[in-house]
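DATA SHEET
Item: assembly model
Revision: 1
Owner: S.N.
Input lines:
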Amino acid sequence: DAGVIQSPRHEVTEMGQEVTLRCKPISGHDYLFWYRQTMMRGLELLIYFNNNVPIDDSGMPEDRFSAKMPNASFSTLKIQPSEPRDSAVYFCASTSGGLRFFGPGTRLTVL
Amino acid sequence: RKEVEQDPGPFNVPEGATVAFNCTYSNSASQSFFWYRQDCRKEPKLLMSVYSSGNEDGRFTAQLNRASQYISLLIRDSKLSDSATYLCAVSSGSSNTGKLIFGQGTTLQVKP
């Protein structure tokens, strides 16, 4: 298995632009998590899904952030419009009730 | 107060030293506890779960103190390759499928 796949690995964009981060969980995993990591705030849970349904989005910072999971093998995290303070590493993770595996992350820089 | 707190360090120790990290949590209903390791510019990877009775995996020992609401990680005979950031994680549920709240991480640097 290839593990959790995220794309792009790096994204540099300008303030005000729309950013879409993508995640493919490990096949068979029915939980998917989006995390954000910064030096100041550490690793924060943004939202998680179970069987493609959002369960808890209380960590989503504001309405500019949205996440979808149209099927069991794909999820997106969208930021529109992006701001410099959104600069961070965004991790996707998945599990089926056992170990939680993280993807390699997307390093986002908003100028 | 943060839900999960760790001393960020850094802890600078010589090879062969024993080092211990603590992590405190605020939610007394927390049921599951973990230690993750994160190398520079990499994703977190599960190091070990923490069980009520304490558990050991080679040079690593994890313990849970529910009364004082903290977990600990002990590394014996530290190696250069142990240099990393160690994150504690606490789940509010009884399994690994719910919210997992991470501490800020403790940085360990093992020197020759």
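QC remark: The mean pLDDT of chain B is 92.
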